[in-house]
Design brief:
single chain; 224 residues; alpha+beta; globular
Length: 224
């Protein structure tokens, strides 16, 4: 390959994945020493603060999200844990406005059958007019895939928040994207056979700062 050849954006994550294995490859046959990392001081507070200050954002600016930021979020996403490291997911990061408009219309048609007020509101967007929609499909034959997808989804929410981005999980999109009549959308997104949509995330720059709703600590019980 020519030294002057530029790396395509689509290959960026692949290279990051390879870089992540470099220490293991260069170690040869030597056993790699595993060090436990304990976060202290500012790092620890930043991590806890990120978890406690994340909110679901339902209003976004029209500012475009840079490819490098999306790459970072996806880098974090694929590092989410999964049972037996099966990684039973396929992720699609959608910025194409025509596709986003079509997905919203498919949702509207499905919701209209239930005669919901939101379906009649022509200004409503199921992903709140966010500039990016992340669709996560899971292996339908893997009984643990839904849990794994849920963990990945939360990883996306937290990593995006750490970058100053806003997110909102979109559960209402799951039913429409699993209907047979919308199979053409799944094919358009190049989601393989045997995978079904299990999670969706709206992503963009937040245009609101919502207060945290009440959390019910009495739902946590300690068994001693």
């Amino acid at each position: 390959m020519s030294e002057n050849k530029k790396m395509s954006r689509s290959s960026f994550l692949g290279v990051l994945g390879v870089l992540g294995t470099v220490p293991l490859l260069t170690a040869g046959c030597k056993e790699k020493k595993i060090e436990r990392v304990v976060y202290k001081g500012g790092n620890k507070e930043a991590i806890l603060n990120n978890i406690l200050t994340r909110r679901a954002i339902r209003k976004y600016t029209d500012q475009e999200v840079a490819q490098e930021m999306l790459d970072t979020v996806m880098r974090c996403a694929i590092f989410a844990p999964s049972a037996t490291n099966a990684q039973p997911w396929e992720v699609r990061v959608i910025r194409n406005q025509d596709i986003l408009t079509e997905i919203n219309e498919r949702w509207r048609k499905t919701a209209a059958k239930k005669d919901t007020a939101l379906a009649r509101d022509l200004e409503f967007s199921v992903f709140h007019h966010a500039p990016v929609l992340i669709v996560i499909a899971g292996d339908s034959k893997n009984p643990k895939a839904r849990v794994d997808v849920g963990i990945m989804l939360q990883t996306i929410l937290l990593s995006a928040h750490g970058l100053g981005l806003g997110t909102c999980p979109i559960g209402m999109l799951i039913p429409p994207l699993t209907l047979p009549e919308n199979r053409d959308i799944i094919k358009l997104l190049n989601i393989p056979e045997g995978y079904e949509v299990m999670g969706n995330v709206a992503l963009g720059y937040p245009d609101e700062s919502p207060e945290a709703p009440v959390r019910f600590s009495d739902k946590v019980k300690y068994i001693v």
